Amino acid sequence: MIWLALIGLVVLFSFSFVLLFGAPYVPTLTPQVEVALELVNLKPGETLLELGCGDGKVLIAAAQTGLHAVGYELNPLLAFVAWARTRRFKGAVRVVCGNFWTKQWPEASGIFTFLHPRFMKKLDKKIVQSNMQNVKLVSFAFAVPGRTPTREKKGVLLYDYAD
Ligand SMILES: C[S@@+](CC[C@H](N)C(=O)[O-])C[C@H]1O[C@@H](n2cnc3c(N)ncnc32)[C@H](O)[C@@H]1O
After folding, report:
1. Would you tell me how many other CB atoms lie within 10 Å of the CB of residue 124?
2. FRET pair for 48, CA 20 to 30 Å: which of 42, 64, 105, 118?
3. How far apart are CA 65 and CA 145, in angstroms?
4. Is 28:56 a contact under the CB 8 Å cutoff?
5. Cβ neighbour number for residue 114 with a 10 Å cutoff
6. What is the CATH number of the domain that holds 54?
7. Structurally, how many domains does the chain consist of?
């Protein structure tokens, strides 16, 4: 019984402490994942960075289209699930368990996020400071304040960060 209570506490803690640093876990719907990949329009071999990769759903969809994908996930349980689900794409997908705000991001041509309105300005600043060359951001549901999306489809917004 005590083990069940402990497991429950670990699960509760893993899902709730993330709220201090970002959005809670809610998976993107499959049609929106497809739209995001369509809008970001990367070529096979290019890298998509996912900030808060949840259970790895977007990473898998990206790898299936021939992309390289790197996902950051703060919740260790979700990071483990994402890692386990993407193991078959060894070499193409990397899952990093950690806080994407404090990490040095790898070179990438596209970024996917499904965060929360209160983090979008901070995200914009971090992308600009990261000096990524012509990176494209696809954000499900939430707009970047002060920027006009290049395209918008089914609730997915595309932003071009041209040099
Ligand atoms: C709304 S969910 C989206 C999950 C996934 N991207 C998807 O679209 O299906 C946001 C995810 O970001 C993670 N997250 C929030 N803040 C984070 C941070 N600072 N660093 C890494 N992951 C974070 C949460 O744990 C959660 O899994």
Report:
1. 17
2. 118
3. 30
4. no
5. 26
6. 3.40.50.150
7. 1
> Domain range spanning residue 19?
2-161
Calpha distance 137→125 (Å, rounded): 13
pTM above 0.85, yes or no: yes
Sheet with strand 135-140: strands edge to edge: 93-97, 68-73, 47-51, 110-113, 135-140, 156-161, 151-153
The residue behind tokens 């021939």 is: 66
CB 27 near ligand 1, within 6 Å: yes
* 123: confidence class by pLDDT, cuts 50, 70, 90: very high
Q: Cα separations (Å) of 96 from 43, 69, 136, 139, 158?
A: 23, 11, 21, 20, 24
25 lines ligand 1 (CB under 6 A): yes
| pLDDT tens for each residue of 58-74 | 999 999 999 999 999 99
- Reported as a single tens digit per residue, the pLDDT across 136-162 is 999 999 999 999 999 999 999 999 998
Q: How far is the CA of 141 from the centre of ligand 1 (A)?
A: 14
Judged by DSSP in three states, 136 sits in strand
CB half-sphere exposure, 95, CA atoms < 13 A:
29
